[in-house]
Amino acid sequence: MLQHFQELWALRHFLGALIALDLNSRYRGSIIGLGWSVAQPLAMAVVLCCVFQTLFGMNTSDFGPRLLAGLSMWAFITTCAIGGCTAFLSNVAFIKQRRSPGTLYPLRVVGAAAVHLLITLTVSVIANAAFNGPSKLIGLLWILPIAVLLVVIGWLIAICLSYAHAYFRDTAHLVDILLQVAFYLSPILYPLSLLEGRGIGWIVKYNPFGAIVEGLRAPLLCYPSAPTGVYFSILATVVLLGSLAIYLTVKYEHRVVFRV
């Protein structure tokens, strides 16, 4: 594995150029450019805040930043998952031209998504400070470590799904359905306390996506720490994804060129 990371490091400039190309292609000719990465979750958060405040009397000052942070993390996870499925197929020309680490192209997907993640997490903390006081700006200190952990998780997800989709082309469609289900089983639209009050808090404990969002959102927004079980769930998710990613890379890295 050490040699694998050395090869990745040697290609860091190539990777950076690919990520820059993705971002430039996406926002070429746009007036606000990267601002669109904030506009989508922000618009959705505003609409949902209005709906939930009207229907359930939710406190906007607490619910708004919580929702925006959750949507930001979820958008990153879904981008890594869906983009990871086609990571090899989208880079066939490079894969067939030269030998490169199998984890390089999933990392391309994650790298572009990480730029959007950093922007939206920063906006979430600023929104929290605007609603609940400048003391909440301390959450800015958590952005980088949380983003790094999310990037690792997103990279592992993208690696696993890139190999799965190369061998089973229905993977992307199945993942799309599973992500829609997981969204409503995660505490993004509603707080964990609401689930616990209805006796279904276990959904978060055994839902890795819910645990990731709930566990990492708490320090970012200066909320009380999530239950210990949530962090054990995050740790278990990283270990399992990491083990699977290593296995798939070792076994299929040199064969995937024949499947794309």
UniProtKB/TrEMBL annotation:
PANTHER family in UniProt: CAPSULE POLYSACCHARIDE EXPORT INNER-MEMBRANE PROTEIN CTRC (PTHR30413:SF10), INNER MEMBRANE TRANSPORT PERMEASE (PTHR30413)
Alphabetically ordered keywords of this record: Cell membrane, Membrane, Polysaccharide transport, Sugar transport, Transmembrane, Transmembrane helix, Transport
ABC-2 type transporter transmembrane domain boundaries: 17-219
Family per record: Belongs to the ABC-2 integral membrane protein family.
One of the record's GO molecular function terms: ABC-type transporter activity
GO cellular component: plasma membrane
Membrane protein topology class: Multi-pass membrane protein
Chain ranges passing through the membrane: 31-56, 68-95, 107-131, 137-161, 173-192, 230-250
Keyword Transmembrane (UniProt): yes
Name this polypeptide is given: ABC-2 type transporter
Localization, UniProt: Cell membrane
InterPro entries in UniProt: ABC2_TM (IPR013525)
GO terms classed as biological process: lipopolysaccharide transport; polysaccharide transport
